[in-house]
């Protein structure tokens, strides 16, 4: 176990109590609120490659080992659209095929530093695969709960890393409830939504983009379910602003599937609109979250930066998959929600604009690919 002379730098976002000096709880033992970094994040780049460069920014005990798989350092690729230039941040090229690796390397390294030998996680697929991979890297026994509708390749990926896979019938929310019951029975919950270590790893996406562009983006567009990547980027840009590296915050734009869009509903119509929100089926399974844990924080980050939420229809997601694939970006349907948002907003956004491609198309099952995604370039241009 870690030395009691070192304390985790977190506090409860609800009641303000400090993180306990023993154990590794996923939420506040007093009020059940989620923990957050107490004093903000520090931009402290150092030697090393990719995320190892930012080791001093992470909330880890001194001399901790970072159980890296080479995550981060993903390409920032410029693409000319008729509405204007866009830079795609290719997070689907991380080691396990999604942006989750940025946060998971920090969380799993923290678990290992705390002496954890086994842990559980819940996921629609990407977070579970990432947890399984980094747990294998660190020598931690992993059990991953997934909804039964999660794509076959994601389930196979989780099992390939040696994790125990537990399939749960029903909507995505039932999977979380099953994992919470396991946590109540004593399992360490390596939650990518509750555990505060995750956001500090996600913040590195802001560091990399600012370093590559030589400034902050004018606007940044994300698929949003729980909103962990958007929150992490917000934290990262705040740290850059405090360090004097950038002069202003980018507008943060969150995109949700109309089939399950609670944050969009509150943003456009207030909390009363939540009565209309359902957890319906969507191609964008990775953002099918009806009750995001840190939803209030995500809303505040978007509104503080002058950003917005957009909700997109299934047909628009299908078109996004086609358009991105035929520009060389093979992404899963969840990533494709950014395309219709770009079509609607790009002309009005300040330069430069960055859109995040969050997950690889190699992880999407056959049923996730709508008819017509594989049309030839000639057919597309003729249509």
Outline the fold blueprint:
Layout: E1 10-12, E2 35-37, E3 76-81, E4 84-90, H1 100-113, E5 118-122, H2 126-138, E6 141-147, H3 152-160, E7 164-168, H4 172-184, H5 197-202, H6 204-213, E8 219-223, H7 228-242, E9 251-257, H8 262-269, H9 295-304, E10 308-312, H10 314-325, H11 338-345, E11 353-357, H12 377-382
Parallel strand pairs: 4-11, 5-6, 6-7, 8-9, 8-11, 9-10
Antiparallel strand pairs: 1-2, 3-4
Helix pairs in contact: 1-2, 2-3, 6-7
Structure description:
- This protein is α/β, with parallel strands linked by helices and 383 residues long.
- It has 12 helices and 11 strands.
- The protein is 32% helix and 15% strand.
- It has a domain at 76-99 and 197-378: 3-Layer(aba) Sandwich (Rossmann fold).
- The longest helix has 15 residues, at 228-242.
- Helix 6 crosses helix 7 (228-242).
- It is globular.
Number of strands: 11
- What's the multimeric state? single chain
Largest sheet: spatial strand order: 3-4-11-8-9-10
First-to-last CA distance: 62 Å
Total number of helices: 12
The main β sheet shows up as: 6 strands, mixed
Estimated share of beta-strand residues: 15-25%
What is the global morphology? Answer: globular
Mean pLDDT, to the nearest integer, reads 91
